[in-house]
Inverse folding.
């Protein structure tokens, strides 16, 4: 997609504002202090985590960590993921995780590690009334299959890793726009723009009608830069380089 087409996809003007966003902001992380910080903000509407983030955060007791977080965040949706590669065990874990709180969504990967589709399990759990976050999707075929598997009366998320799509050199905007259409109306399923790489992706997600974008705290903290004067930001950058060079004691 060329530059002119990209400019039609999202408003890149200085008038960007968080107040005008329709997309809901979710915080993605596994550091409890960071999760609580983000949950305290009114503009953060939910939270997500995953086993990789939890491992990086040094979590060793999955259930204790989850219950501890839920005790302090009982009023915003939080997604916790199953971690088995066997669908029967995934089902057992999903039922248990769903029982941890009314605000819990259970993350189910789109396939297991053998590339076997999880759609049958998704259908079974959704019909049971369990709120799901079907994760790690990258294709429209996967979006279509998941949307058809979910009970339209049960709240759920379909999480497309737009950032990983972009990592392959493919523009995720057309894919995400079509994914919104595939989910359609008359259902409680919502599309998540997952794995964003920069703050601008928030406005990309908003421009295509995505319901939710989930981002790490590092990206969400850049929200305060929205609307910042670029000349001022340029000067801040020059000052940073100068101060760091002095602090390092560089000489030639």
């Amino acid at each position: 997609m060329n530059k002119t087409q990209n400019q039609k996809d999202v408003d890149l003007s200085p008038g960007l504002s968080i107040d005008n966003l329709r997309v809901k902001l979710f915080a993605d992380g596994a550091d409890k202090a960071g999760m609580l910080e983000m949950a305290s903000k009114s503009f953060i509407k939910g939270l997500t985590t995953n086993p990789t983030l939890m491992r990086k955060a040094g979590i060793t007791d999955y259930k204790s960590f989850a219950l501890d977080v839920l005790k302090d965040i009982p009023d915003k949706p939080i997604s916790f993921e199953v971690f088995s590669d066997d669908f029967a065990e995934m089902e057992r874990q999903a039922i248990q995780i769903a029982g941890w709180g009314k605000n819990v969504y259970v993350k189910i990967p789109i396939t297991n590690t053998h590339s076997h589709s999880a759609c049958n399990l998704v259908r079974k759990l959704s019909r049971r009334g369990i709120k799901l976050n079907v994760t790690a999707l990258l294709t429209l075929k996967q979006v279509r299959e998941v949307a058809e598997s979910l009970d339209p009366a049960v709240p759920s998320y379909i999480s497309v890793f737009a950032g990983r799509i972009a990592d392959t050199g493919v523009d995720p905007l057309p894919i995400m726009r079509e994914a919104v259409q595939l989910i359609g109306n008359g259902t409680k399923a919502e599309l998540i723009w997952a794995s964003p790489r920069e703050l601008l992706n928030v406005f990309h997600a908003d421009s295509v009608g995505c319901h939710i974008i989930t981002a790490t705290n590092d990206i969400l903290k850049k929200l305060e830069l929205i609307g910042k004067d670029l000349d001022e930001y340029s000067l801040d950058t020059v000052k940073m380089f100068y101060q760091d060079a002095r602090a390092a004691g560089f000489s030639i």
About this structure: The longest strand covers residues 104-109. The beta strands are 24-28, 44-48, 78-81, 104-109, 132-137, 156-160, 189-193, 212-216. The two ends are 45 Å apart (CA to CA). Confidence is low (pLDDT under 50) at residues 1-14.
